[in-house]
Design goal:
The protein contains ten helices and eight strands. By secondary structure, it is α/β, with parallel strands linked by helices. Bound molecules: zinc ion.
Amino acid sequence: MYYIDPHIHMVSRTTDDYETLAKMGCVALSEPAFWAGFDRGSAESFRDYFRQLTEVEPKRAAQYGIQHFTWLCINAKEAENVTLSREVIALIPDFLDCPNVLGIGEIGLNKNTKNEATIFAEHLELAVKYEQQILIHTPHLEDKYQGTRMILDMLCDDSRIDRSRVLVDHVEEHTVRHVLEEGFWAGMTLYPVTKCTPQRACDIIEMYGPERLMANSAGDWGPSKPTAIPDLILEMRRRGHPESLIRKVVYENAIEFFSQSQGFNFKAPDANETAASS
Ligand SMILES: [Zn+2]
């Protein structure tokens, strides 16, 4: 089955990982800008990072037939440095017309601090000004519920924001309902530590249905599994879910959500076959 990973940090992965993903059916992925595992020292290092996301990774992915899309921002962890964050936000418009850019992300909160909230709000201004889609990181573990609530409140207070163009990631059992009920898209991150397992994600799909719900691996520099979506596919099959439902969650929903962005020039691998047979 073809699938799309809507949230994976390929700059941290090897070329062998691209090959493995391709063999498992991954045909496209989207890579939000995030924390590198250390705090960067200047805005210029973000300029280089944005070049990596818009120039280097699409080429690396294309070698394996995978289409690479990306999102730009300064992440919530480094947003604690407000001066640096504003310098980085000022760089972003230079990159918004790059052909693989889908929007602003992953923005959000980490420890739910005042500085993080300030920079989150300034990213929202940027997204509104340039009519960009938004991808949101919600905090982990003990900070998740409160952080998600703060994020949803800030989004819902701003009538300029189109909720159907916002994806709220790292949802779990205690946050997913709020995200979906407010009209946003929700992403479940399948991760060996913190976050969600394929079994829990399958439970959530059974409880809430597949509308506006996606799954991702977040595959990054930490302990993570870039092939976590095939694990979810296997778990859904094991429980007897129809292929049409699985395909909606791991493929069609991503296409529907990303298609709202001008940068999503996705070509489905079976598009010609479908056209020929219909
Ligand atoms: Zn991430």
